Amino acid sequence: MNSRVPEGSVAEEKGTSSPLSSPTQISTGFVESAASLFREQGYAACTTRDLASALGIQKSTLYHYIDRKEDLLYEICRQSLAELTGAVQATLETVDSSTAVRAVIATHLSIVLAKKDMFSVTLMETRSLTGARREKILEARLRYRNIIGEVVREGQLNGELRNDIESTYLSMALFDHLNWILFSHSLEGNHVPENIAEHYTRIYLEGAAAKPSDGN
Amino acid sequence: MNSRVPEGSVAEEKGTSSPLSSPTQISTGFVESAASLFREQGYAACTTRDLASALGIQKSTLYHYIDRKEDLLYEICRQSLAELTGAVQATLETVDSSTAVRAVIATHLSIVLAKKDMFSVTLMETRSLTGARREKILEARLRYRNIIGEVVREGQLNGELRNDIESTYLSMALFDHLNWILFSHSLEGNHVPENIAEHYTRIYLEGAAAKPSDGN
DNA sequence: GTCTATAATGGGATAGAC
DNA sequence: GTCTATCCCATTATAGAC
Are B22 and B8 in contact (CB under 8 A)? Predict the structure, then answer.
C-alpha cells in the first residue's frame, strides 16, 4: 500500500483565527492509512513501525512527515470534525427549517459512513490526545454537539419533533443513533449506507413500536 | 483506594461446560478498579503501575493475583457479559411476551448503567484481548446480540414492534441505543439512570417526531 | 502477601549517510 | 526523501528476600 506522500512536516500551530484551521499539510492518504490502522488496533497499540509498513516505508522515514505519532491522530480528529461540521452547517443554510432534523441526519450519516475509519477513530481515540490539542478537539466536538442540540430545539419549536420529552434526551438519543452506527455497521457487514441512513432516520423519528394503524 | 484483595491467582481455564464460566477468582474490587482505569485511559495506555497504584500496592504485587495484565481485561469482559446475559434471560422468563422488548430494554439499561466502567471497557476494549479469550468474548457478545435479535423478531410477531422495517435494522438501532448511552451519559453528566432508561425506551419505541395528535 | 531490584523486550524518536 | 543504526526510556514480567 504505497500511497506516496508529498511535502511538508507538522508545524506547531500559531494563533489562528478560525477554529480547527489546518496547521499543517500531511497528505490525505497518509492520514487515512493511519486512521485505518488506529481503528483496527487502537491508537496506543499501533506502533510507528505498523504505520510505516502500511505505507511501505521505514519508521524513521515517517518522521520526515510528522514530528510525533500523535500528529496523525490529531489530523484525523481535526479533519473529521471540520468536514462534518462544515457539511452540516452547509445543509442548515439551504434546507427548509421544517425538515432540518431530517436533513441533518442524512448529511451526518452520509459523511460519516463514507469515512468510517476516520470517524471511528475520532470518536474513540480523542482521549489519547494530550494537552492543547486534546482541548481543541474536545471543543470542536462540543461545538458540533451544540449545533445538533440547537437543531433539535428548533425542531421542537417547528413541530418537527415532539415536545413532551426534554430536548436534552432527544439530542442524546440522536447522538447515540448517529455515532454508534459506525460500530453496528462494521459488525453487521453488508448494508448499503443509503439504506442504513434511511432506516435509521425512520426509526429515530417514527419509533420502533407498532402503530395503532398497523395490522395488529 | 486500598481495596484489599483476597485469595487466588488466575489459572488457565480447562474445558468447562457452561460458556464463560469463571476460570478464576480475582476479587471484585480488583476487577472494578481496573475497569475504572481502563475506561479512563484505555487498556493499552494503562500501565501495570497505574493499576497497582490505584490499589495501593506495588506493581510486582499485582502479579501475585494475576498472571498477566490481560487477565484483568478478560475478567471485566467475562463478568460483564455473564451478568447482562443472565439478567436479560431471567427477565425473559418472567415477563409477559407482549411487553418483552420494553422489559429487556429496562433490564439492560439498569444493569449497564449500574456498572458503567465495566461495560464501557467491555464494549471498547475487547479487541485488545488475544487468542482464545478474545474468541470467547466475541462469541459471548454475539450470543447476547442474538438474544436481542430474537426478542425483536418476536416483538414483531406479537405486535409490540412495527413490521414494516426489517428486524435487522430494528435490532441494530436498538443496540446502538443501548450501547452508546454509556458515552453520552458520561458526557452529559447528572442524569439519573432511571430517567435515562425511561426516556430512552420511549424515544426508541415511540420515536422523536411530533405525532399528528400533538399540538402542532 | 508485600516488597526491592532487575531482567528482557519493544517502543518512540534521532543521527547521519546516501 | 529514504535508508541503517542506534539511543533512551517505559513497560511487562520475574527473582528472591522478608
Answer: no
- At residue A8, does pLDDT exceed 60? no
The C1' atom of D15 and the CA atom of B61 lie apart, in whole Å, by 13
Nearest nucleotide (C1') to alpha carbon of A62: D2
Provide the pLDDT for residue A15.
41
B-chain residues within 8 Å CB-CB of A173?
A: 177, 199-200, 203-204, 208
**Cβ of A128 under 8 Å from any chain B Cβ?**
yes
Among A10-19, B37-46, B69-78, B193-202, which stretch is predicted with the lowest mean pLDDT?
A10-19
- CA of B156 and C1' of C1: distance in angstroms? 56
A8 close to B (CB below 8 A): no
- Percentage helix, strand, coil for chain B under 3-state DSSP, each rounded to 5: 70, 0, 30
- By three-state DSSP, how is residue B113 classified? helix
Cell numbers for B70? 490481560
Q: Which domains does chain B have, with CATH numbers?
A: 70-206 (1.10.357.10)
**What is d(CA A153, CA A164) in angstroms, rounded to the nearest whole number?**
12
Rounded to two decimals, the pTM is 0.90
